[in-house]
Design a protein that fits this description.
mainly alpha
Length: about 180
């Protein structure tokens, strides 16, 4: 049996954390569930990440980073208008093929809002940084047009909402797409 390095275990923890947090959110996910999914003990989990918050933040940053990479790859070599269509298609594919990404995004927003409401402003700062990197990637791919960036991300958030709420594709709420 080949032993995994600490870095490989960290990657396993991040993947497991995305799965667990996407399903139950920050408050509803135990570190025990993440450790069990990875196949490690909780003490070992905490040698890799010092706190549950650190695990969540790593998973949140990863989710946003991978979404940004999907957009950037889709837009490579395309003119701004073509980039818009390519990124939209890539995102549709991403959330259809990997629904945990969408669920994790929604959990990220809830966790940051909850932390802010509780006065824990530092919690969201690294997530806001990762989200701004996502925004900047979209913005550059769309030729630096703020209005296009805003419309693209606003439409994406509406898609996130409709999918999260379980509206079927033939529902009238999708008519404008």
């Amino acid at each position: 049996m080949v032993r995994m390095s600490a870095e490989e275990r960290r990657e396993s923890v991040i993947r497991a954390a995305v799965t667990e947090f996407s399903r139950a959110g920050y408050k509803g996910t135990s570190t025990e569930a993440i450790a069990r999914r990875v196949g490690v003990s909780q003490p070992y989990l905490f040698r890799l990440f010092p706190t549950k918050e650190a695990i969540f933040l790593a998973a949140a940053r990863r989710c946003l980073e991978e979404t940004r990479e999907v957009f950037e790859k889709a837009a490579e070599g395309a003119p701004p208008r073509g980039a818009l269509q390519a990124m939209a298609a890539a995102y549709d594919h991403l959330i259809a093929e990997d629904p945990e990404k969408l669920q994790m995004q929604m959990q990220i927003y809830v966790a940051v809002a909850s932390a802010e409401a509780a006065g824990e402003h530092e919690f969201g700062s690294s997530i806001r940084k990762a989200w701004m990197e996502l925004w900047d990637g979209v913005h550059l791919a769309l030729g630096g047009e703020a209005k296009e960036t805003t419309l693209f991300l606003a439409k994406g958030m509406l898609i996130n909402t409709l999918v999260s709420l379980g509206f079927p594709p033939d529902h009238r709420t999708w008519a404008g797409f």
